[in-house]
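Each lists chain and fold; for instance:
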Amino acid sequence: MRASYRHSRKGIGGRPRGAPTTVVRLPLPVAAIAKRLADGSLRAGDLASIFSVEAYRAATVPLVMSPASCGFPSPADDYLDRPLDFNELLISNPSATFAVKIAGESMKDAGIFPGDLAIVDRSVSAWNGCVVLALLHGEFTIKRYRKTVDGIVLHPENKAFRDIIVGEDSGFEVWGVVRNTIRML
């Protein structure tokens, strides 16, 4: 008796062959995001369906019209301008904006330090010289976006780090433009 074997594109357990995998225990919602990220069906515009990005309440603080000197003190004016709303100041498109905490020192010469918050607007297209939140090789990074004749370069603002030349197989995607940062002292 002769056995017949069919060649298949499927690997062990019916899983498609491809990059090596590992078993990881994740909460189901996080696993669903990871699966969409791995199969390429998750795009930057999908974040609103995953994360709540809307402000839950408006908060304002008084804005003093005269600037505060960092040198010799000057007398303060009694005049206050209209209240300042930080949502208004930092966010131009609330439904497309989210914050991410900075880790690492690759952008310190641009004034972006570990622990700071980056305000990222995903409704804005990247332009030459802007700072972006990008997905590269499955990991997020914040770098200066440069377009050259040879392609895209992600430039760190720290001389201890090297430029990253984006290759075709890097899984590169701009997730948004960093519009503001908040220093967390």
In short: The first strand starts at residue 60 and ends at 64. The chain has a mean pLDDT of 78.
